[in-house]
Write a structure and sequence with these properties.
The protein is mostly beta strands. It contains 3 helices and 27 strands. The protein is elongated.
Length: 394
Protein backbone atom coordinates (compact mmCIF):
# COMPACT_ATOMS: atom_id res chain seq x y z
CA UNK A 1 0.00 0.00 0.00
CA UNK A 2 1.09 3.56 -0.85
CA UNK A 3 -0.01 6.68 1.07
CA UNK A 4 -0.55 10.08 -0.53
CA UNK A 5 -1.65 13.39 0.97
CA UNK A 6 -4.94 14.84 -0.39
CA UNK A 7 -8.03 16.61 1.03
CA UNK A 8 -10.07 13.54 2.04
CA UNK A 9 -10.11 10.12 3.71
CA UNK A 10 -10.14 8.21 0.47
CA UNK A 11 -9.48 4.66 -0.65
CA UNK A 12 -8.33 4.59 -4.29
CA UNK A 13 -8.64 1.29 -6.21
CA UNK A 14 -6.29 0.75 -9.18
CA UNK A 15 -5.25 -2.11 -11.43
CA UNK A 16 -1.65 -3.01 -12.28
CA UNK A 17 -1.59 -0.29 -14.95
CA UNK A 18 -2.64 2.40 -12.44
CA UNK A 19 -6.10 2.68 -14.04
CA UNK A 20 -9.04 3.24 -11.69
CA UNK A 21 -11.51 0.38 -11.35
CA UNK A 22 -14.86 0.21 -9.58
CA UNK A 23 -15.26 -2.42 -6.88
CA UNK A 24 -17.72 -3.54 -4.23
CA UNK A 25 -16.47 -2.72 -0.74
CA UNK A 26 -17.59 -3.89 2.70
CA UNK A 27 -15.96 -3.58 6.08
CA UNK A 28 -16.05 -2.58 9.71
CA UNK A 29 -14.36 0.14 11.78
CA UNK A 30 -12.47 -1.79 14.44
CA UNK A 31 -12.55 1.22 16.81
CA UNK A 32 -16.30 1.97 16.70
CA UNK A 33 -17.84 -1.25 15.26
CA UNK A 34 -19.31 0.88 12.42
CA UNK A 35 -20.20 -1.44 9.50
CA UNK A 36 -20.75 -0.49 5.86
CA UNK A 37 -21.37 -2.05 2.46
CA UNK A 38 -21.16 0.02 -0.73
CA UNK A 39 -19.38 0.49 -4.06
CA UNK A 40 -16.63 2.82 -5.20
CA UNK A 41 -17.31 5.77 -7.52
CA UNK A 42 -14.73 6.04 -10.30
CA UNK A 43 -12.48 3.83 -8.20
CA UNK A 44 -12.79 5.98 -5.04
CA UNK A 45 -14.51 5.33 -1.67
CA UNK A 46 -14.62 8.03 1.02
CA UNK A 47 -14.56 6.92 4.67
CA UNK A 48 -16.66 8.96 7.13
CA UNK A 49 -14.41 8.40 10.19
CA UNK A 50 -10.74 8.05 11.02
CA UNK A 51 -9.51 4.82 12.55
CA UNK A 52 -8.65 1.29 11.49
CA UNK A 53 -10.93 -0.56 9.08
CA UNK A 54 -11.03 -4.20 8.10
CA UNK A 55 -12.23 -4.28 4.48
CA UNK A 56 -12.97 -6.65 1.63
CA UNK A 57 -12.88 -5.59 -2.04
CA UNK A 58 -14.41 -7.42 -5.02
CA UNK A 59 -14.22 -6.42 -8.69
CA UNK A 60 -15.09 -8.41 -11.81
CA UNK A 61 -11.93 -9.81 -13.37
CA UNK A 62 -9.75 -9.23 -10.29
CA UNK A 63 -8.69 -11.25 -7.26
CA UNK A 64 -10.64 -10.37 -4.06
CA UNK A 65 -8.72 -8.31 -1.53
CA UNK A 66 -9.00 -8.58 2.26
CA UNK A 67 -6.96 -6.47 4.65
CA UNK A 68 -6.88 -3.52 7.01
CA UNK A 69 -6.40 0.20 6.38
CA UNK A 70 -5.82 2.93 8.95
CA UNK A 71 -6.67 6.62 8.63
CA UNK A 72 -5.01 8.83 11.24
CA UNK A 73 -6.19 12.20 9.87
CA UNK A 74 -8.67 13.68 7.40
CA UNK A 75 -6.11 14.33 4.65
CA UNK A 76 -5.12 10.82 3.68
CA UNK A 77 -5.48 8.70 0.56
CA UNK A 78 -4.65 5.01 0.54
CA UNK A 79 -4.08 3.24 -2.77
CA UNK A 80 -4.77 -0.47 -3.20
CA UNK A 81 -3.89 -2.28 -6.41
CA UNK A 82 -5.96 -5.34 -7.32
CA UNK A 83 -4.45 -8.25 -9.25
CA UNK A 84 -6.21 -9.55 -12.35
CA UNK A 85 -7.67 -13.05 -12.20
CA UNK A 86 -7.99 -15.41 -15.15
CA UNK A 87 -11.40 -17.00 -15.50
CA UNK A 88 -13.83 -17.73 -18.32
CA UNK A 89 -17.39 -16.39 -18.39
CA UNK A 90 -20.15 -18.07 -20.37
CA UNK A 91 -21.00 -16.26 -23.62
CA UNK A 92 -23.98 -13.94 -23.27
CA UNK A 93 -26.31 -13.76 -26.27
CA UNK A 94 -29.08 -11.26 -27.05
CA UNK A 95 -30.42 -12.49 -30.39
CA UNK A 96 -33.99 -13.86 -30.24
CA UNK A 97 -34.11 -13.61 -26.45
CA UNK A 98 -36.24 -11.67 -23.97
CA UNK A 99 -33.24 -10.16 -22.24
CA UNK A 100 -29.67 -11.43 -22.27
CA UNK A 101 -28.99 -15.09 -21.52
CA UNK A 102 -25.99 -17.39 -21.51
CA UNK A 103 -25.48 -19.38 -24.71
CA UNK A 104 -26.10 -22.70 -22.96
CA UNK A 105 -29.41 -21.48 -21.47
CA UNK A 106 -30.69 -20.00 -24.72
CA UNK A 107 -33.90 -21.57 -26.02
CA UNK A 108 -32.62 -21.25 -29.58
CA UNK A 109 -29.12 -22.52 -30.51
CA UNK A 110 -26.90 -19.48 -31.12
CA UNK A 111 -23.46 -19.70 -32.71
CA UNK A 112 -21.04 -17.01 -31.51
CA UNK A 113 -17.99 -15.60 -33.30
CA UNK A 114 -16.16 -13.41 -30.79
CA UNK A 115 -13.87 -10.47 -31.45
CA UNK A 116 -10.73 -12.47 -30.65
CA UNK A 117 -11.48 -14.98 -33.42
CA UNK A 118 -12.29 -12.17 -35.85
CA UNK A 119 -8.92 -10.57 -35.09
CA UNK A 120 -6.98 -13.83 -35.45
CA UNK A 121 -8.43 -14.56 -38.90
CA UNK A 122 -7.54 -11.03 -40.10
CA UNK A 123 -11.12 -10.47 -41.27
CA UNK A 124 -11.77 -7.03 -42.75
CA UNK A 125 -15.50 -7.35 -43.39
CA UNK A 126 -18.42 -9.69 -42.76
CA UNK A 127 -17.70 -11.69 -45.91
CA UNK A 128 -14.24 -12.63 -44.60
CA UNK A 129 -15.69 -13.74 -41.25
CA UNK A 130 -18.42 -15.99 -42.65
CA UNK A 131 -16.46 -17.56 -45.53
CA UNK A 132 -15.42 -20.66 -43.56
CA UNK A 133 -18.51 -21.03 -41.36
CA UNK A 134 -20.39 -24.33 -41.70
CA UNK A 135 -23.88 -24.13 -43.16
CA UNK A 136 -23.12 -20.76 -44.75
CA UNK A 137 -22.18 -20.23 -48.40
CA UNK A 138 -20.79 -16.97 -49.77
CA UNK A 139 -21.09 -16.00 -53.43
CA UNK A 140 -19.29 -13.09 -55.06
CA UNK A 141 -20.32 -10.69 -57.79
CA UNK A 142 -17.46 -8.54 -59.08
CA UNK A 143 -19.66 -5.43 -58.95
CA UNK A 144 -22.64 -6.07 -56.64
CA UNK A 145 -20.40 -7.59 -53.96
CA UNK A 146 -20.90 -10.61 -51.68
CA UNK A 147 -24.15 -12.40 -50.92
CA UNK A 148 -25.01 -15.15 -48.46
CA UNK A 149 -27.09 -18.30 -48.25
CA UNK A 150 -27.86 -20.22 -45.04
CA UNK A 151 -28.91 -23.85 -45.26
CA UNK A 152 -29.50 -23.35 -48.98
CA UNK A 153 -31.77 -20.30 -48.48
CA UNK A 154 -30.55 -16.91 -49.67
CA UNK A 155 -31.61 -13.45 -50.76
CA UNK A 156 -34.51 -11.85 -48.90
CA UNK A 157 -34.74 -14.84 -46.54
CA UNK A 158 -31.56 -14.08 -44.55
CA UNK A 159 -31.87 -11.33 -41.94
CA UNK A 160 -28.78 -9.25 -41.10
CA UNK A 161 -28.86 -6.95 -38.06
CA UNK A 162 -26.43 -4.55 -36.40
CA UNK A 163 -27.23 -4.19 -32.68
CA UNK A 164 -30.73 -5.43 -33.45
CA UNK A 165 -31.36 -2.92 -36.26
CA UNK A 166 -31.96 -4.43 -39.74
CA UNK A 167 -29.38 -3.61 -42.42
CA UNK A 168 -31.11 -2.10 -45.46
CA UNK A 169 -30.01 -1.66 -49.08
CA UNK A 170 -30.53 -4.99 -50.82
CA UNK A 171 -29.51 -5.36 -54.45
CA UNK A 172 -31.34 -8.24 -56.18
CA UNK A 173 -32.46 -9.30 -52.69
CA UNK A 174 -28.96 -9.51 -51.23
CA UNK A 175 -26.96 -7.41 -48.76
CA UNK A 176 -23.37 -6.77 -49.84
CA UNK A 177 -21.42 -8.35 -46.94
CA UNK A 178 -18.20 -6.58 -47.94
CA UNK A 179 -19.81 -3.26 -46.95
CA UNK A 180 -20.04 -4.30 -43.28
CA UNK A 181 -16.67 -3.45 -41.76
CA UNK A 182 -15.22 -5.32 -38.75
CA UNK A 183 -13.36 -2.32 -37.33
CA UNK A 184 -15.56 -1.90 -34.24
CA UNK A 185 -17.22 -5.30 -33.76
CA UNK A 186 -17.39 -7.13 -30.43
CA UNK A 187 -18.97 -10.39 -31.63
CA UNK A 188 -21.38 -11.93 -34.16
CA UNK A 189 -24.37 -14.08 -33.19
CA UNK A 190 -25.75 -16.52 -35.79
CA UNK A 191 -29.03 -18.45 -35.72
CA UNK A 192 -29.73 -20.93 -38.50
CA UNK A 193 -33.26 -21.91 -39.41
CA UNK A 194 -36.68 -20.24 -39.46
CA UNK A 195 -36.93 -17.15 -37.24
CA UNK A 196 -39.87 -15.45 -38.97
CA UNK A 197 -41.99 -15.39 -35.79
CA UNK A 198 -39.40 -13.12 -34.15
CA UNK A 199 -38.04 -11.16 -37.11
CA UNK A 200 -40.59 -11.28 -39.93
CA UNK A 201 -40.93 -13.07 -43.25
CA UNK A 202 -37.36 -12.36 -44.42
CA UNK A 203 -35.79 -14.46 -41.64
CA UNK A 204 -36.70 -17.89 -43.02
CA UNK A 205 -33.10 -18.96 -43.60
CA UNK A 206 -31.65 -17.51 -40.39
CA UNK A 207 -30.49 -14.39 -38.58
CA UNK A 208 -27.07 -12.77 -38.22
CA UNK A 209 -26.83 -10.15 -35.45
CA UNK A 210 -23.63 -8.08 -35.34
CA UNK A 211 -22.86 -6.64 -31.88
CA UNK A 212 -20.67 -3.53 -31.82
CA UNK A 213 -18.23 -2.72 -29.03
CA UNK A 214 -19.48 -0.91 -25.98
CA UNK A 215 -17.73 2.12 -24.49
CA UNK A 216 -15.05 1.43 -21.88
CA UNK A 217 -14.61 3.24 -18.56
CA UNK A 218 -11.05 4.10 -19.60
CA UNK A 219 -9.27 6.22 -22.17
CA UNK A 220 -7.88 4.12 -25.01
CA UNK A 221 -6.74 4.41 -28.63
CA UNK A 222 -6.23 1.45 -30.97
CA UNK A 223 -4.95 1.45 -34.54
CA UNK A 224 -4.74 -1.37 -37.05
CA UNK A 225 -3.56 -1.71 -40.63
CA UNK A 226 -3.75 -4.49 -43.20
CA UNK A 227 -1.83 -5.00 -46.46
CA UNK A 228 -1.93 -7.61 -49.24
CA UNK A 229 0.39 -7.65 -52.23
CA UNK A 230 -2.60 -7.93 -54.63
CA UNK A 231 -3.34 -4.28 -53.92
CA UNK A 232 -5.26 -4.23 -50.64
CA UNK A 233 -4.53 -1.42 -48.16
CA UNK A 234 -6.80 -1.16 -45.09
CA UNK A 235 -6.50 1.04 -42.00
CA UNK A 236 -8.71 1.63 -38.97
CA UNK A 237 -8.64 3.57 -35.70
CA UNK A 238 -10.77 3.44 -32.55
CA UNK A 239 -10.82 6.07 -29.79
CA UNK A 240 -12.50 5.61 -26.43
CA UNK A 241 -12.82 8.24 -23.70
CA UNK A 242 -15.13 9.14 -20.86
CA UNK A 243 -16.08 12.07 -18.67
CA UNK A 244 -17.90 11.31 -15.43
CA UNK A 245 -20.97 9.27 -16.52
CA UNK A 246 -20.61 10.11 -20.21
CA UNK A 247 -18.76 7.66 -22.47
CA UNK A 248 -17.64 8.62 -25.98
CA UNK A 249 -16.44 6.20 -28.64
CA UNK A 250 -15.30 7.13 -32.15
CA UNK A 251 -13.96 5.05 -35.05
CA UNK A 252 -12.83 5.59 -38.63
CA UNK A 253 -11.60 3.26 -41.37
CA UNK A 254 -10.45 3.19 -44.98
CA UNK A 255 -10.40 0.03 -47.10
CA UNK A 256 -8.81 0.13 -50.55
CA UNK A 257 -8.56 -2.54 -53.25
CA UNK A 258 -6.68 -1.79 -56.47
CA UNK A 259 -8.45 -4.42 -58.58
CA UNK A 260 -7.04 -7.64 -60.03
CA UNK A 261 -6.76 -9.57 -63.28
CA UNK A 262 -4.95 -12.79 -64.09
CA UNK A 263 -2.66 -10.94 -66.50
CA UNK A 264 -1.53 -8.32 -63.93
CA UNK A 265 2.16 -8.15 -63.20
CA UNK A 266 3.32 -7.81 -59.61
CA UNK A 267 3.25 -4.23 -58.33
CA UNK A 268 3.90 -3.69 -54.58
CA UNK A 269 2.16 -0.29 -54.73
CA UNK A 270 -0.96 0.68 -56.72
CA UNK A 271 -0.32 1.89 -60.27
CA UNK A 272 -3.20 3.38 -62.27
CA UNK A 273 -3.46 2.15 -65.86
CA UNK A 274 -5.79 4.81 -67.22
CA UNK A 275 -5.38 4.52 -70.97
CA UNK A 276 -3.98 1.11 -71.93
CA UNK A 277 -5.41 -2.40 -72.17
CA UNK A 278 -4.44 -3.12 -68.54
CA UNK A 279 -7.08 -0.66 -67.35
CA UNK A 280 -9.74 -3.42 -67.38
CA UNK A 281 -9.87 -5.52 -64.19
CA UNK A 282 -11.64 -8.83 -63.60
CA UNK A 283 -12.06 -7.86 -59.91
CA UNK A 284 -13.07 -4.21 -59.84
CA UNK A 285 -11.17 -1.51 -57.91
CA UNK A 286 -12.95 -0.50 -54.72
CA UNK A 287 -12.50 2.18 -52.06
CA UNK A 288 -14.48 2.36 -48.82
CA UNK A 289 -14.62 4.96 -46.05
CA UNK A 290 -16.40 4.51 -42.74
CA UNK A 291 -16.80 6.67 -39.65
CA UNK A 292 -18.86 6.45 -36.49
CA UNK A 293 -19.36 7.99 -33.09
CA UNK A 294 -21.43 6.93 -30.10
CA UNK A 295 -22.38 8.53 -26.79
CA UNK A 296 -23.51 6.54 -23.74
CA UNK A 297 -24.79 7.97 -20.48
CA UNK A 298 -25.71 6.35 -17.19
CA UNK A 299 -28.52 8.13 -15.32
CA UNK A 300 -29.45 6.30 -12.12
CA UNK A 301 -31.63 3.44 -13.41
CA UNK A 302 -31.38 4.45 -17.07
CA UNK A 303 -28.80 3.58 -19.71
CA UNK A 304 -28.96 5.91 -22.72
CA UNK A 305 -27.00 5.56 -25.97
CA UNK A 306 -26.89 7.39 -29.28
CA UNK A 307 -24.92 6.03 -32.26
CA UNK A 308 -24.17 7.58 -35.65
CA UNK A 309 -22.43 5.76 -38.53
CA UNK A 310 -21.57 6.80 -42.08
CA UNK A 311 -20.27 4.62 -44.93
CA UNK A 312 -19.19 5.48 -48.47
CA UNK A 313 -18.05 3.11 -51.23
CA UNK A 314 -16.78 3.77 -54.77
CA UNK A 315 -16.44 0.93 -57.29
CA UNK A 316 -14.90 1.62 -60.69
CA UNK A 317 -15.48 -0.69 -63.66
CA UNK A 318 -13.07 0.50 -66.34
CA UNK A 319 -13.95 -0.75 -69.80
CA UNK A 320 -11.56 -2.16 -72.38
CA UNK A 321 -10.27 0.30 -75.03
CA UNK A 322 -12.42 -0.05 -78.16
CA UNK A 323 -10.97 -1.15 -81.46
CA UNK A 324 -9.77 -0.34 -84.03
CA UNK A 325 -7.81 2.65 -82.64
CA UNK A 326 -8.24 1.99 -78.88
CA UNK A 327 -8.79 5.70 -78.24
CA UNK A 328 -11.99 5.50 -76.17
CA UNK A 329 -13.85 3.31 -73.70
CA UNK A 330 -16.95 3.16 -71.50
CA UNK A 331 -16.54 3.21 -67.71
CA UNK A 332 -19.14 2.41 -65.04
CA UNK A 333 -19.05 3.89 -61.54
CA UNK A 334 -21.02 2.63 -58.55
CA UNK A 335 -21.26 4.99 -55.57
CA UNK A 336 -22.89 3.73 -52.36
CA UNK A 337 -23.74 5.76 -49.25
CA UNK A 338 -25.11 4.48 -45.94
CA UNK A 339 -26.26 6.59 -42.98
CA UNK A 340 -27.39 4.95 -39.74
CA UNK A 341 -28.61 6.57 -36.53
CA UNK A 342 -29.76 4.65 -33.46
CA UNK A 343 -31.03 5.82 -30.08
CA UNK A 344 -31.33 3.19 -27.34
CA UNK A 345 -32.79 3.51 -23.84
CA UNK A 346 -33.01 0.84 -21.17
CA UNK A 347 -34.42 1.05 -17.65
CA UNK A 348 -33.74 -1.48 -14.92
CA UNK A 349 -34.54 -0.99 -11.24
CA UNK A 350 -35.29 -4.48 -10.07
CA UNK A 351 -33.87 -7.81 -11.17
CA UNK A 352 -37.21 -8.98 -12.57
CA UNK A 353 -38.38 -5.82 -14.34
CA UNK A 354 -36.82 -3.86 -17.18
CA UNK A 355 -37.73 -1.61 -20.08
CA UNK A 356 -35.97 -1.31 -23.44
CA UNK A 357 -36.65 1.04 -26.33
CA UNK A 358 -34.86 1.58 -29.63
CA UNK A 359 -35.36 4.21 -32.32
CA UNK A 360 -33.44 3.91 -35.60
CA UNK A 361 -33.14 5.80 -38.87
CA UNK A 362 -31.35 4.25 -41.85
CA UNK A 363 -30.59 5.71 -45.27
CA UNK A 364 -29.10 3.90 -48.29
CA UNK A 365 -28.33 5.15 -51.79
CA UNK A 366 -26.53 3.58 -54.73
CA UNK A 367 -25.88 5.57 -57.90
CA UNK A 368 -24.69 3.86 -61.08
CA UNK A 369 -23.37 6.03 -63.92
CA UNK A 370 -21.83 5.19 -67.29
CA UNK A 371 -19.25 7.52 -68.82
CA UNK A 372 -17.71 7.81 -72.28
CA UNK A 373 -13.92 8.21 -71.81
CA UNK A 374 -11.59 9.80 -74.34
CA UNK A 375 -8.33 7.94 -73.67
CA UNK A 376 -6.18 10.50 -75.48
CA UNK A 377 -6.97 13.32 -73.03
CA UNK A 378 -8.91 11.37 -70.31
CA UNK A 379 -11.94 13.63 -70.61
CA UNK A 380 -15.26 11.98 -69.78
CA UNK A 381 -18.98 12.65 -70.09
CA UNK A 382 -22.18 10.86 -69.16
CA UNK A 383 -23.65 8.71 -71.91
CA UNK A 384 -27.01 9.91 -73.29
CA UNK A 385 -28.66 6.47 -72.93
CA UNK A 386 -31.19 6.65 -70.09
CA UNK A 387 -30.74 2.98 -69.11
CA UNK A 388 -27.02 3.59 -68.43
CA UNK A 389 -27.83 5.75 -65.39
CA UNK A 390 -29.59 4.41 -62.30
CA UNK A 391 -30.24 5.47 -58.69
CA UNK A 392 -31.53 3.20 -55.91
CA UNK A 393 -32.65 4.57 -52.53
CA UNK A 394 -34.00 3.04 -49.32
Amino acid sequence: MLKLTLQAQQLLILDSNAIRINAKIEGVNLNTAFRFKSSTTNGVYIFPLTGTYKIRLQALGFEPYTGTVTFTNTQEVIIIKLMKSDFVLDDIVVTAQIGSKTAKNSVIPVRIIDGKKIGLMGAQNLRDVLTNETGIRISQDNILGSSISMQGISGENVKILIDGVPVIGRQNGNIDLSQIDMNNIERIEIIEGPMSVNYGTNALGGVINIITKKGLATNAISFKTYYESIGTFNTGININTHWKKLGIQASASRNFFDGWSATDRYEPLPVKHLADTNRYKTWKPKEQYGAGISFSYRLKYWDLKYKFNYFNEDILNRGRPRSPYYEDAFDDTYKTSRLDQVFQASYSKKARSSFNAQLAYNYYQRVKNTYYINLTNLEKELTPVLEDQDTTRF
